Amino acid sequence: MSLPQLSPQLLDQQPELLPDYGKLLALPEKIIQFGTGVLLRGLPDYFVNKANAEGIFNGRIVVVKSTSTGGTDTFSEQQNIFSHSIRGIENGQQIDESVINTSISRTLAAASDWLDILECAHNSQLNIVISNTTEVGIQLVDDNIFANPPSSFPGKLTAYLLERYRAFNGAPESGMVIIPTELIVGNGPKLKAIVLEQARRHDLDEAFVEWLEKHNHFCSSLVDRIVPGKPDAETIEALSEKQGFRDDLLIVSEVYRLWAIEGGQHVRDVLSFAQADKGVVIEPNIDLFRELKLRLLNGTHTLASGLAFLHGLDTVREAMENAETAQFIADVMLKELAPSIPYDVDPAQAQEFGNQVLDRFRNPFIRHQLIDITVQYTAKMKMRNIPTLLNHYQKSEEVPALFAKGFAAFLRFMKPVMHKDNAYYGERDGQPYSIRCDAAAYFDEKWKNAASPVDLAQQVLSDVSLWDTDLTLLPGFADAVKGYMTEPVVTGTSTL
C-alpha cells in the first residue's frame, strides 16, 4: 500500500498530524524569500514556523525561485507544506523529531511570475526580505532592473525595492528589513552597496536613493545549521514509513541551529519570530559568530571536502569514520585554522567551538554529501580560507602543511576530464563527478596547458586575479602544495 502525499488534504483527513493547521495556512504574508534551497527551509523558515506555532510572529513567506533551472511543481503539488526531520545530539540527549512546516504561502518563479513578485511589494505587512543565492549571488553585474526579470539577485532586489518605494510614495514606514544569508563577510553592507550602485547606474531618483539609505535595514547575518541536500532513498523511505506519508520536499537537519543577525531594536521588533528560539541572535555586532563559523566549520569543510572525496569517501560522516581523514579534519581545524582566525578570538573559545564542530560532523543521522560541499569550490576557498592562510603567515613563517594538503586536493579535484552540455566533469576511480564551480572553465584551460601538476599549481597559486594576492610569495607554501600534487590519493595510504 502506497503512502499518501503530504498536502492540506492529508492534514484534513488526519488532523492529528498538525492540529489547527488551518489557522497557520490563513496567516498573512510578511516575508519574501529569494531562494528555495534546503538551508533556507531548514533554518529561517524553521524559526518562522516555530514562532507561528507559538502565536508569536503570525506571518508566512512568499518564496522566489531565482534560478532558471527546475520548476516549482513539487511545491505546488504539496501547496508548499513540507516536513523537516531534526536529528542529533543536544545537551547530551539524542533528538529525533519531525516537524510539519507550513510557513511558506506561495512559491513563485522569477522567470515566469515576475509581475506577481513585484505585486508583493504593495503589501504593507510584507516588510522582510531573506535571501540565499550562494556566495556568488551577491555580485555587481551589468543588469537591467526593468527587465522581466532582472538577471541577478541584486538587480531583482533593486527592482523590488523601487516598486515598494513607488507603491507607498516613499513613506518611511514602508522600508524593509533585508537579511542576506549568503556566506560573505559583511553580506548586508555589500548587498546594500550593490543596490545603491544599480540605482545610480539606472539614474533613479535621488529621493528613492535617500529612502533606500534611511529607511531600509540591510542586516549582515550568519546562518549555521547543517542541512544536507536531498536525503538518499534509504533515508527517505525510512522517514516516510515513520511519518506515515510521502513528502517530496522532505529535508533533514542536525539539531544545532544559529542565525546571528546584525541589528538594533527596530530589527528586533520587525523580526519578532526571534523570540521563539534561542538560535536566533540579534546583536549590534556579529563578527565573532561569523568568524568562528566561517573559518572553522566552513573553512574545514572546504579544505577537507575534495581531499576526502578523492580519498574515495562520499559523506562527511564517512570522512569522520575514516581514521586518516578524521585526523586530518581535526588537526587542520584545531592546529592550523583555529590559531589563525583573522579576528581577535579567545584561543580557548576557538578550540571549544572547533570541538563542537567535530561533534556535529560526527552526527550519525546526517548524510552530508562531500560533492555538495564542493559547489562553487573556488569562491569558497577564496572567501573562507585564504584570509586565514594570510593571517597564519602574519603570525608565523611555519608552513601550514595540512592547509597545503587540502589546497592541493582542491586543485586536483578541479581537473576536468570531460566537458558536455556546458558542464564539466572530473574523474574518481574511473567514474565521472560533476564540477559545479564557476571557475571550472578556467581550470579546464589551466590543466590542459600546464606542463605538469606542479606547473599547474605554480600558475594557479600565483594568479592574483583569482586570489587577490600571489600565494607563491608565502614562504614555503607553494613548495608544500607542489609536493602534495605528485602524491597519490589512495585509500589506506598515509598520503591521502
From TrEMBL:
GO terms for cellular component: cytosol. The keyword Ribonucleoprotein does not apply. SUPFAM superfamilies: 6-phosphogluconate dehydrogenase C-terminal domain-like (SSF48179), NAD(P)-binding Rossmann-fold domains (SSF51735). Residues 29-265 form the Mannitol dehydrogenase N-terminal domain. Pfam families: Mannitol_dh, Mannitol_dh_C. The keyword NAD applies. GO terms for molecular function: mannitol-1-phosphate 5-dehydrogenase activity. This is Tagaturonate reductase. The lineage of its organism: Bacteria, Pseudomonadati, Bacteroidota, Cytophagia, Cytophagales.
